[in-house]
Amino acid sequence: MKLTKRSKSIGGIIGIAVGAILAAYGIQGFIVYSGLSGGGVGGIALLLYYTFNLPIGIVTFILNVPLFVLGWKEVDKQFVFKTIWGLAIFSIFLDLFNGIQPFDFNDIFLGALYGGVISGVSSAIVFRFGGSLGGTDIVSKVIQRKYGVPMGTSALAINGVIILISWAVLGPKAALYTLVMLFVYGRVLDLIESGVPAKSITIISDRSEELVARIMVDLGRGATFLHGRGAYSCEPKDIVICVVSLPEMGRLKRAVREIDPQAFIIIQNAGEVFGSGFISNE
């Protein structure tokens, strides 16, 4: 049953709210509890909280307002409205969850680990429904448009400055574990956004048709033929291209070894795969 446009819109609003609440819970319950900082606007808000005891939620919202003004012409208006909604929920629950303690732990590494995982999951939920929780991404986009600096480079520079300030304010231990938290956050977010880990396989063989038949039967995967020609022999060859999940890699290699031990195999990481058996195109 297909969802109506109105149902999708309501679902998106609820989804962004759920992700924002989860993000606030992760920050207060693990990151703040462990005395860690963060990157972007959130990192600045945390440093102001540790230094002047300013409420994290209110400060986060206030710091994002000029960013919205700055980037109003640079980003999609619907994205801005969804981000304002998510940011409002996020800011409110950041202060409502103040002092929350999910369970008693005295390990800063666990705080960084759990904080990074929950932040990654919550951000993926918000992104899935077309929103965000604000931050310096808008600044990076403006810098890219005006000066041609890649967004990744400017974002890294901004976060680097914030981490250095965290080092000075919170000490080297907290700053280093903040880096651990940010790394875990990035890995979890990439994993969820990219879907099931997969490999793109290119096989050059004189027995390509037998290989494809075996792949379709044993793995249940489709494949594509590309017509090529050997540079040395000048003979025509059918090149096989297919995509498999990580658990299927062993069976694929075994099938190639059994049919054509002389086959040439190229294995590459597939960042995202859309289509049957992977992420739905819908």
UniProtKB/TrEMBL annotation:
The chain crosses the membrane at residues 12-36, 48-72, 79-96, 108-127, 147-168. It comes from the Bacteria. The keyword Transmembrane helix applies. It is found in: Cell membrane. Its main location: membrane. It holds the Pfam family YitT_membrane. InterPro entries: DUF2179, N-reg_PII/ATP_PRibTrfase_C, UPF0750_membrane, YitT. The keyword Transmembrane helix applies. This is Uncharacterized membrane-anchored protein YitT, contains DUF161 and DUF2179 domains. It comes from Desulfosporosinus lacus DSM 15449. The lineage of its organism: Bacteria, Bacillati, Bacillota, Clostridia, Eubacteriales.
